[in-house]
Amino acid sequence: ETGVTQSPTHLIKTRGQQVTLRCSSQSGHNTVSWYQQALGQGPQFIFQYYREEENGRGNFPPRFSGLQFPNYSSELNVNALELDDSALYLCASSLVGEGTQYFGPGTRLLVL
Amino acid sequence: GESVGLHLPTLSVQEGDNSIINCAYSNSASDYFIWYKQESGKGPQFIIDIRSNMDKRQGQRVTVLLNKTVKHLSLQIAATQPGDSAVYFCAENINDYKLSFGAGTTVTVRA
User: Fold this and answer.
1) Least CA distance to B89: which residue of chain A?
2) Is A4 within 8 Å of B43 when comparing Cβ atoms?
3) Helix, strand, coil % (nearest 5) of chain A?
4) Which of A52, A18, A37, A39 is nearest to A90 (CA)?
5) What are phi and psi of B83, to 5 degrees?
6) What are residue A84's phi and psi, to 5 degrees?
7) Per-residue pLDDT tens for A28-61?
8) Å from B46 to nearest chain A CA?
């Protein structure tokens, strides 16, 4: 088990709503990355945060946004939810410059 | 372009046999690769990694082989156990911050 934790474990929302997912990094790590994993697919990179700023972004629209806090924990916010946003959202932490990322258990989001 | 893919979506293996999971990548500039194991309902778990200056790396019951000439890597699991049943992903580290994953190979261990 990694030291990365995520909350909540499951969430149900309706289309058009907004959602906030939370992540606590593994102790000693200073970057947090977020991934979206659709059923039967590999994780897709959303963005990474380092020093409380976005450090890189994947092919996701601006309604996906994030925050990193001084204690290296992080939030993923998704506005104007769409049905296709239903997925497992994974948080991963690492040390900047080291390629290996360690994943949390994920938050399963269902949009109805 | 940058992409990582696995050759086969499923693999069925007899308990005690060795498993080989393959992965192809397209970015010849990639220099770091990671194998993850994902069990049902859990996040991906780090198994082993390899940098492009190596062609082989061994861990506990696992070996990763990297062939840069044909842009191919593989994960070998020795003496496969029921607990090895999971989805296996290879991931390519891009620009030192982004991991690019393939679709995964589902390994089923037969008793």
Assistant:
1) A42
2) yes
3) 5, 50, 45
4) A37
5) -70, -10
6) -70, -5
7) 899 999 999 999 999 999 999 999 999 999 999 9
8) 7
